[in-house]
Amino acid sequence: MAEAGMLTCVPAGKAEAVERIKPYLIGVGEEPSKASLLKIIGNIFIVNMIETLAEGHVLSEKTGLGDENLQKFLSVVFPGPYMIYSKKMSTGNYYSKEPLVAIDMAQHVAAEILDMAKETGTSLKAYATAVEHMETVKSHAGPSGDISGIYGAVRMESGLEYKNGK
Predict the structure, then answer these.
(1) Residues ≥6 apart with Cβ < 8 Å to 89
(2) Which of 14, 34, 39, 138 is catalytic?
């Protein structure tokens, strides 16, 4: 994400300090714990995006719509991070390149998020599905497998090989 210029900084602290950098950032107030909480909750959106992309890619493949048409749609409607992960899936980089996010790290954060959800009585069904798929990624790619390998897990659930052969 850093190479794509898509990092997110969430400032917190004394109002004067935040004000000095505010023209360059979007803040969440003076309480530092809110920035950490936002970062953790933001991971839910990222993982659910990857899960949704994986499911869409597999359905596109199995229905004959094809990758090219799906990529065109995504580039217009969901540019940015969606395209970064979509390209990792369609090109086979989800299993053949250095991970953007290693599955071990993703699972560590996921455990924190699921604990938080349980403590607060929050239902995260879509997220829980993606977390289940992380186990498949780890079993196929090891602890340094990429989180976008969720695509491979969805492929397997749909009767395809983990690797798309690209």
Answers:
(1) 53, 54, 57, 148, 151, 164
(2) 39
